[in-house]
Design a protein that fits this description.
This protein is an alpha+beta fold. The protein contains 3 helices and 5 strands. The protein has a 5-stranded antiparallel beta sheet. Strand 4 and strand 5 form a beta hairpin.
Length: about 180
Amino acid sequence: MRKPRGDIESLPGDGWIRLKPGEFLGRIQLNEFSKMTTDCLFCRIAEHNSDAHVIYEDDALMAFLVLCPIRPGHALIIPKQHFDYFDDVPAELITAIIFFGQKLALVMKDIYRIPRVAFLFTGGDLPHAHAHVIPLHEKEDITSRQYIAEQELTFREAARMPNTELAAIAHGLSCALASRNSD
C-alpha cells in the first residue's frame, strides 16, 4: 500500500524532508514506506554493500554509472532512502535530483561534446525511484515505440561495459563535477 503524499508542510515525523532557512536539503526521517531493504539492489548500493562506479554522493543522493549503458557516461541518480515510485519521493528530494541532473548534464556536454543530454525518471525495471542521465549522441538514443514505423523489432540488451572503462569514465565525471563545484 502506497502512502498518500498529503501536505509536505505537515508536522515532523511523517517521513518527509524538512528544510530550515538557508538549508537546501534537510534530513529524511525513515518511515515504513522509505526504509532501506537488503532486497533492493539500489539500497545495497546506497549503503555500499554492492559495488558501483559512483560519480557523486551526499547525505541524500547517489549517482553511479549504468553497467550496460545506452552510451558511455549513462548514469543513474537515486535517493539513498528507498521509495518505490518517483511520485512518492518528497518534492524537495526530487528537486535535489533534478538540480544534480542539470550539473551532471553540463559536465557530460563538455566531456562528450554533445548538444543534448536526456533526463528521465523511471522505475519499471527496478522498484526504487531513480533518474537516468544519458548523453545523447543521436536523436534515436532514446525513443518511443510510437515513433517506429516497423511493427516487428528485435531488441537486444546493451553490452556490459568493462570495469576499466567504467572506472575511467567515473573518474572523469567525478573530477569534472568536483572542479565545477569549486568554481
